[in-house]
Design goal:
single chain, 463 residues, mainly alpha, 3 strands, globular, binds zinc ion
């Protein structure tokens, strides 16, 4: 969108956010919800209506804790802070972003005081992305990952550089082929190009994704297409019918959503079975392609320390999240100050991942999330990774011969399992409850570490 319209756009957005919030928390609306949920009436509702109304009541109860003028102040500050971050990153100068970040942290602390959940202050932020998840549970899980994954990274780090070349045209063809195998049909779905790949749903019959084709990183388009396809399959299979346009027709958390994208991108897309299926297709699309299947498998599973989260591999990615989790919790606790962040970031980076950024651009300024007020968001990436590994083992339990299905590009049964056990519930339950129903337990980082150890140390895909 036009760059110079930013100030106007942020005014428009903050006005709309405020209006939406006012409607949501209006006494009129609340009276109707209370009327529907009183003892006499709730009995008379159909099961489906009751699920919707009770869910809505929870959402509105939470929204009513926050004053409308706060929403306006926050969204205005976020819009300005985002554009300051963009400039700061371009010039690699943290000082440009600092006053905005300070303000956002203050506003987020104010937000926590309105929501006021039990336990750690961070719970108030976490709950917006991962309802029901608590700092008290996440902290030990992340400490465990920090220890285990650092060791794994030491063992697996590779110096090998494999060179792979694919024309943009071939990349595009491969993206379209994999979408066909994943069953994404044009009557409800489309794919376009953008700088940063994303998924958006306009309705459950209109889900769109984007991808990007990079000459210097030829398989990144395939993986980002598979990643976004995972989000899209979820969106397309959310509750419809009576639940259409209701609060139920959505994912219960970002972590569960991310588990679906990571499932297709990493668990399937970086597996050996997948490449037995996809390598011949790749050879057909680009006959002069030189690397063999072993090379490709090693190439897509190269483990290497990197400064940038979005370029990280399956193992070290989560260490990048641990780093952000530690910093943002201390920031919100007021134990550290925003002005010290570049130094704190670099220190921690060296401690956890073993390399030190040379500039703010590849350090503290690399992600936009904090500039848009998304504190409590980062953990959902790792929660998604953990959940996706747990789903893999549940799938292996329920589907006979899963590997040979993947080797033949037959993803139907796997997709059906995900729809049946996860997608179709929408927001009827929390993520933890959905995971308990299909995998027998909630978040379990040990399963994820076991998946990585089996895959990378023993090249085994069973538990
Ligand atoms: Zn994603």
């Amino acid at each position: 969108m036009p760059k110079r319209a930013l100030a106007d756009r942020s005014l428009q957005i903050s006005l709309l956010s405020k209006r939406l919030h006012e409607i949501l928390i209006s006494d009129d609306f609340w009276r109707n919800i209370e009327f529907l949920t009183n003892e006499r009436n709730i009995e008379r509702l159909s099961e489906e209506d009751r699920i919707v109304v009770e869910r809505l009541k929870k959402d509105v109860e939470k929204a009513r804790k926050i004053p409308a003028d706060f929403i306006e102040r926050l969204s205005k500050a976020e819009a300005l802070s985002y554009s300051a971050w963009e400039i700061a990153k371009k010039r690699s100068k943290f000082d440009i972003f600092l006053p905005h970040l300070k303000e956002i942290v203050e506003l987020k602390r104010e937000y926590c005081s309105y929501i006021n959940l039990e336990g750690h202050i961070y719970n108030n932020l976490l709950d917006d992305y991962e309802e029901g998840m608590r700092y008290e549970k996440l902290k030990p899980a992340f400490e465990y990952l920090r220890e285990k994954l650092s060791k794994l990274l030491d063992k697996l780090e590779s110096e090998e550089r494999i060179n792979i070349k694919l024309s943009v045209r071939s990349q595009e063809r491969l993206s379209h082929i994999i979408l066909r195998y994943l069953g994404l049909k044009k009557d409800r779905f489309r794919i376009d190009l953008s700088e940063h790949p994303f998924t958006t749903r306009l309705s459950t019959f209109d889900v769109r994704i984007t991808t990007r084709y990079l000459k210097e990183n030829p398989l990144s388009s395939l993986f980002s297409t598979m990643h976004e396809a995972g989000h899209a399959i979820y969106e397309l299979n959310l509750p419809k019918g009576k639940f259409r346009y209701t609060v139920i027709s959505d994912a219960p958390s970002l972590g569960l959503h991310e588990s679906q994208s990571r499932f297709w991108e990493n668990i399937i897309g970086r597996s050996y079975s997948f490449w037995r299926f996809f390598y011949p297709i790749l050879k057909k699309v680009e006959p002069r392609f030189e690397a063999d299947i072993e090379d490709i498998y090693r190439y897509v599973n190269t483990i290497r320390r990197s400064l940038i989260r979005t370029e990280a591999d399956e193992v070290s990615y989560n260490l990048h999240i641990v780093l952000r989790f530690e910093i943002e919790t201390e920031l919100i606790e007021n134990r550290i100050e925003a002005k010290d962040l570049p130094e704190i970031w670099n220190e921690k980076m060296e401690e956890i991942i073993g390399i030190r950024p040379k500039s703010d651009r590849e350090g503290i300024l690399q992600d936009m999330h904090w500039s848009t007020g998304d504190f409590g968001y980062f953990p959902s990436y790792t929660i998604g990774n953990i959940y996706s590994a747990q789903q893999l083992y549940a799938l292996r339990r329920d589907i006979e011969d899963m590997d040979s299905k993947v080797e033949h590009g037959d993803f139907n049964e796997i997709k059906d399992w995900l729809v049946r056990n996860i997608h179709r519930y929408g927001r009827m339950y929390t993520s933890e409850d959905i995971m308990k129903m299909c995998c027998g337990e909630g978040l379990n980082p040990q399963i994820f570490v076991r998946y990585l150890e089996n895959k990378f140390l023993q090249r085994k895909f069973t538990i």
